[in-house]
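User: Structure please.
Assistant: Input sequence and predicted structure:
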Amino acid sequence: MAMAVEGFAEQLRARFPQATVEVALPRGEVGLVLDAGDWLEACRALRDEFGFEQLIDLCGLDMLGYGTDEWDTDVSSEGFSRGVEGKGPGRFRYGEGTSAQFPQPQGEAPVEPPARRFAVVVQLMSVRHNRRLRLKAFAPDDALPAMPSVTGIWPVADWFEREAFDLFGIVFAGHPDLRRILTDYGFVGHPFRKDFPLIGNVEVRYDPERKRVVYEPVTSVEPRVNVPRVIRDDARYATAAGEDRDLKVDSGIGPADPAKPTTGPTPNPAPVPRKGAAQ
């Protein structure tokens, strides 16, 4: 499988020398990062020359705040901490806007964010060759992100591009009917942008005096904090060590100090037969 994937990657490099080909092994995932100006030509070539007759997904991507983390995930006697400082993307009140500098994890080297903020990601499938490919291109203008529409190549992209426009504010030039598809027509902003307030821009309520629904700036909702996706190892021993350090007790979960004998209960005691059970 690895040889077949590498061979396909070499074909892409030869056909698109200005693009970046990404290969993730052993999963066999292949990605092609294109310039926005080459988007349409490359998509048409992938359909006609490489047999990718089916577009199975298209979505937007917002890289604002990439590489920053305002959560402290160290282990203590209380497990993983949930301390939050500053105001990261989206965590501010209505009308406050965004902070120019987002917090950086303590003790970690700064992560260089991409030069551009918004991108479009497309997942393609070739039934003929039993092959998948991921395309990505960054919009050249962060203030007004725009990309060419691929509805003329894969008509199924129609609603996908409407969704990316609605949620990320990415404009697809040449789309036959670029309207919102998930939010209300009077919705303010694009809710999947990282600088969209997590409390929203407006709140809806029924006014008994006006006898109709009214939209007002958010006043009664506190700014929220997203829970980051953090992959953690088994923390039972580390938590036990934190308890010994902070609380001066031995939890018995595991050997917090290898030099100190464990005084807690046996981790896996033998089961006790129930009364009346077969012996």
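Residues 202 and 217 are 4 Å apart (CA to CA).
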